[in-house]
User: Fold Polygalacturonase from Panicum virgatum.
Amino acid sequence: MASRTLLATACLVVLLLLTLGGAPVEARRRPRWPHYREVAPGHGLSTTANAPESSSVDGYAYATTIDVGGFGAAGDGKTDGTAAFQKAWAEACSSANSSAQPAVVLVPAGRSYLLKETSLSGPCKSRVTFRLEGTLVAPEDKSGWGKPGSLPRWIIFRGVDGLIVTGEGAMDGRGASSWKNSCRTNHAMPCTVAPSALTFASCDHLVVDGITLLNAPQIHLWVELCRDVTLSRLTIASPGDSPENDGIHVARSDGVRILGARIGAGDDCLSVATGTANLYAAGIECGPGHGISIGSLGRWNSRAEVSNVTVDGATVSGTMFGARIKTWQGGSGFVRGVRFLNMAMDRVRYPILIDQNYCTRPHPSDTTACDHQESRSSAVEVSNVVFGNIWGTAVARDAIRLHCSEAFPCRDVVLRDVQLRTRKGGEKNAATSSCENALLGESTNVSPPPCSSGRSVHCSV
Ligand SMILES: *[C@@H]1O[C@H](CO)[C@@H](O)[C@H](O)[C@H]1NC(C)=O
Ligand SMILES: *[C@@H]1O[C@H](CO)[C@@H](O)[C@H](O)[C@H]1NC(C)=O
Assistant:
């Protein structure tokens, strides 16, 4: 199965490259991830909702199917199903690995299960597939979640090797009360961390395919300390004004592939945090939200390392940012080998942005916290960044902003085939490009011309 997964992944990548590479510009606007549907089932990654619970699903034999209903989960959306899910998981995770087929935990279609904080841990004896065909809902009230000092999580898979989470089902985090009580919304409230919806920690060879995540209190899908991960055909949706609400968050992970995701969120559609290497994302539809971001990095003078990140094929609509790298003043480490390629920007406030003076107030009432961003003698160094084939409309005039650290100017920033204009158009509203401490490498066929703004300082083109 490992080689099958690999093969499936390779096929997906090739298919995607063909689809994106060969299509004319206009046709490229919508990532075509529904094509995955034709590929995935043959590899056992996806099954139909009413597939028989027999030993053969889509030609792929499963050893054991464990329906959560068999453990007393009511599926009425009201009765707490947490204990039943824990039992079903324990059964699957400890089932014998005689046939080398995964044990399946089935969340049946047409039912809705209320789950509280749920931790599903490995290592497992057998490989496990979590088939989500029905709906999981979180309680409205999440007070008291998470141990003090730890991050609250709704559902976390931990230490499971070769896990597959697949299906047509959905998870609804019911984040509305968390958003309402966020200090970002209500300045009288203290700032706290709201639960993330679905977390994978230390899960190598992970596949997450087809599922829908709705209304997470904070981060929808969090991948941490995982190696070799495929996230495909995901749908993530929450309102554009939900505070600190990210779509996919990847941290300290190596070899994450995101192949097709529709993401609407209040904050970053995709955020790539420290310790991430070799990430590849294609077929991303983002909006509303804050775009696709690397960072933030280097907060509290921390060390951050991000390398070899490629975003290839994305449509970003109605967002605050498009392709962004954000680091705080101070800190150390690097961001290098980043490629933002083939991106359509539609009404994006700042489509291309490197911001090394990133700052958010610890509490929104602390209005001066970010006023005196002193240039520090250290920074997370940014180098070898390509923005290639990026086109569309900006809302702000400054469509390209490369605002780098005085201590360590950005190096080898390449702009190639970038065509951005303002929504209003016309000479008076023509798009501009501003730079600080940016050393550009190649710059070919770029409009607005790089560092054309009168405010550009310490730049070389
Ligand atoms: C299950 O068995 C297969 C071969 O029979 C083996 O490759 C695999 O590593 C085993 N999985 C676990 C979790 O032991
Ligand atoms: C960069 O990451 C991609 C996966 O996105 C991988 O195929 C490639 O080998 C990596 N390159 C280097 C130099 O490690």
About this structure: The pocket of 2-acetamido-2-deoxy-beta-D-glucopyranose (ligand 2) is lined by residues 278, 280, 308, 310 (CB under 6 Å). The chain has four helices and 31 strands. The two ends are 50 Å apart (CA to CA).
